[in-house]
């Protein structure tokens, strides 16, 4: 059974069919890419998949379970975590606390334990600190744990967003243009981080990207979107040589 | 790992600083009173100052920490005041002062919290400024409702009416508990500075400990970015409800304290109206939005200043406004904030503080 299975997914904004009869199958362990020109509907697919938008038609299954129409928080708890094209950090909070918020549903103690500072509060907080620091060091952010996240440089903000998504313990990680605004060095680092996460956390990744070097470098399969519809799909090499794709997207 | 513990201790030290500051002020004022150094005018202000400081803590939880706007918080205080005074009046003869007041305070908090919860159910699932609109209406409505509420007691039990005293049909030796627009008279004077201080301290500890916990971080994540909060699995509506309900409970405590300091409790606009709610908001904004300590300091200073300026007679409100503007500028100007941090707060605590609490 595929980890993610999307069928006949459509959404309409007024007269615009932003996503039209979309389908996608992601197997466990895949590193899957989604590309397409600006406004093709890529982010909208993510928003549908995470419950931010409700589809007009279609079914989304995760591990066989129908998650269509659930709230974003429920879908995250079902095992889908994401980053955002326009970074959305908890800007006033420290780098460490951003990741600890991601850990929210994996570590628990009661409200009373927090207010009365019972032993379970201290114990669980310590465990959360340790787990968060582990994740931060994967992304080379352990030295910035106390920094207010808004003060991080752009590239590190993107990485922190991935660390926070990972903290929720997802089965499927969605990355919306993770390399946007990064210089070639940072992009190279990011590619290594993504490969590392995939190997060491057994993660399945679906990513949107404009950087063709990154896409060709790490994605094994691709879907190309154009005007809300699938233009091509399959393994990366074949898709990137498709004349339709070159015409619509790469040739410009 | 050093880093993570560093974060925790820094925040804890900051919170401890707030608690110690309150304890020191309380000890100093108590000593001054014992030595007869506090004139009766200021002495009479001590309980109201505690009431307003608790309201500042309560509203800061909603506005500064949750990031929602409530402009009817005086309404929750009003409910807490009437519910607790109603209970105290009913049991004035049958119970000892201490257990009676304790239960009255708990009832004030519980009833106000219940109303906060009820308002939250439809409103807090929406995104936008709906809470501001609904709390504004709630604050006005609750006052007017209480003003047409008549409750009396005689040998046959309790009688309710919204039509008037006569409609109760009380026996001649019956007693009015809530008398419509005349409110409740003869509530026992149970509120003291010490009780006020203890209630303030409890409110502060609850809010600071909650803020610096797993659930507090979830609440602040909603303020910082609601969509991101949902994306990492935070049940947004539930935590909005939690913060708002706790805030209403604390406002109810303040109301109970307030009611037991008055010979006659009337739901007038001056006491529980829109202007009061806005004043509480001013405490929070002047205090730096999100800073519990700042909100308390603003509440104390802004309650004291008009009294200390009485000698200016007609110019009083003019000077008060000027002080308000100056405080606002000093508090929000980055240069002056840095100066204050270096020269004043820096002496009491090291480190820069994490930004959201203090
Ligand atoms: N909430 C919305 N309301 C109306 N139109 C929307 C909404 N969200 C997206 N759209 C429209 O849907 C289309 C697809 O947008 P989307 O953001 O998914 O594109 P994209 O492929 O991610 O583009 P880019 O590469 O620029 O990020 C665009 O025309 C956009 O204007
Ligand atoms: Mg996009």
Question: Can you tag this structure with a few keywords?
Answer:
heterodimer; A: 252 residues; alpha/beta; 4-stranded antiparallel sheet; 10 helices; 10 strands; 40% helix; B: 358 residues; mainly alpha; ABC transporter involved in vitamin B12 uptake, BtuC; 3-stranded antiparallel sheet; two-stranded antiparallel sheet; 69% helix; globular; disordered C terminus; binds adenosine-5'-triphosphate; binds magnesium ion
Notes on the structure:
The complex is a heterodimer of chains A (252) and B (358). With 252 residues, chain A is of the alpha/beta class. Helices cover 40% and strands 24% of the residues of chain A. The longest helix of chain A has 20 residues, at 119-138. In chain B, a hairpin with a 2-residue loop joins strand 1 (150-154) and strand 2 (157-161). The model of chain B is unreliable at 1-6 and 349-358 (pLDDT under 50). Chain B has one domain: Orthogonal Bundle (ABC transporter involved in vitamin B12 uptake, BtuC). In chain B, 69% of the residues lie in helices and 5% in strands. With 358 residues, chain B is mostly helical. The interface between A and B is large, with 50 and 37 residues. The structure holds adenosine-5'-triphosphate and magnesium ion. Magnesium ion is lined by residues 42-43, 85 of chain A. Magnesium ion binds next to helix 1 of chain A.
């Amino acid at each position: 059974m595929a980890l993610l299975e999307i069928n006949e997914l459509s959404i309409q904004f007024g007269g615009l069919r932003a996503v039209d009869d979309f389908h996608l199958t992601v197997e466990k362990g895949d590193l899957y890419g989604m590309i397409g020109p600006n406004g093709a509907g890529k982010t909208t697919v993510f928003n549908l998949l995470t419950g931010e938008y409700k589809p007009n038609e279609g079914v989304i299954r995760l591990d066989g379970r129908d998650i269509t129409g659930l709230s974003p928080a429920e879908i995250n708890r079902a095992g889908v975590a994401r980053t955002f094209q326009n970074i959305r950090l908890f800007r006033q909070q420290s780098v460490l606390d951003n990741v600890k918020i991601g850990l929210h549903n994996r570590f628990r103690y009661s409200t009373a334990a927090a207010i009365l500072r019972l032993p379970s509060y201290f114990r669980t907080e310590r465990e959360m600190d340790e787990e968060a620091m582990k994740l931060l060091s994967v992304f080379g952010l352990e030295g910035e744990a106390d920094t207010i996240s808004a003060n991080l440089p752009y590239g590190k903000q993107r990485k922190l967003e991935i660390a926070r998504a990972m903290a929720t313990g997802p089965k499927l990680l969605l990355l919306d243009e993770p390399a946007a605004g990064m210089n070639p060095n940072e992009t190279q680092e990011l590619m290594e981080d993504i490969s590392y996460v995939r190997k060491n956390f057994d993660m399945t990744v679906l990513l949107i990207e404009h950087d063709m070097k990154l896409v060709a470098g790490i994605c094994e399969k691709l879907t190309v979107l154009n005007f809300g519809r699938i233009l091509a799909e399959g393994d990366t090499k074949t898709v990137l040589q498709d004349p339709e794709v070159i015409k619509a997207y790469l040739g410009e | 790992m050093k880093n993570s513990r560093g974060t925790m201790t820094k925040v804890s030290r900051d919170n401890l600083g707030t608690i110690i500051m309150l304890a020191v002020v309380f000890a100093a004022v108590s000593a001054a009173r014992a030595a007869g150094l506090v004139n009766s005018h200021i002495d009479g202000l001590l309980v109201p100052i505690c009431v307003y400081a608790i309201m500042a803590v309560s509203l800061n939880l909603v506005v500064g920490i949750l990031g929602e706007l409530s402009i009817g918080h005086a309404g929750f205080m009003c409910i807490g005041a009437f519910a607790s005074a109603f209970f105290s009046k009913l049991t004035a003869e049958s119970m000892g002062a201490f257990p009676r007041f304790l239960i009255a305070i708990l009832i004030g908090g519980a009833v106000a919290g219940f109303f906060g919860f009820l308002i939250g159910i439809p409103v807090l699932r929406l995104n936008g400024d709906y809470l501001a609109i609904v709390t504004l209406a709630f604050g006005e409505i609750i006052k007017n409702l209480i003003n047409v509420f008549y409750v009396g007691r005689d040998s046959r039990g309790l009688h309710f009416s919204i039509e008037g005293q006569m409609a109760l049909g009380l026996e001649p030796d019956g007693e009015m508990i809530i008398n419509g627009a005349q409110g409740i008279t003869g509530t026992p004077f149970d509120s003291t500075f010490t009780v006020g201080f203890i209630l303030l301290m409890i409110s502060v500890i609850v809010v600071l400990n909650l803020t610096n916990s797993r659930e507090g971080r979830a609440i602040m994540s909603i303020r910082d970015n609601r969509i991101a909060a949902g994306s990492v699995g935070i049940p947004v509506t539930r935590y909005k409800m939690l913060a708002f309900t706790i805030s209403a409970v604390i406002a109810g405590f303040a109301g109970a304290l307030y009611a037991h300091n008055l010979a006659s409790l009337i739901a007038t606009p001056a006491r529980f109206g829109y202007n009061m709610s806005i004043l509480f908001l001013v405490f929070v904004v002047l205090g730096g939005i999100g800073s519990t300590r700042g909100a308390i300091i603003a509440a104390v200073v802004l309650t004291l200043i008009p009294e200390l300026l009485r000698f200016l007679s007609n110019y009083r409100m003019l000077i008060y406004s000027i002080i308000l503007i100056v405080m606002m500028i000093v508090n929000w100007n980055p240069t002056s904030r840095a100066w204050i941090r270096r020269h004043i707060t820096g002496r009491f605590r090291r480190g820069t503080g994490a930004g959201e609490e203090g």
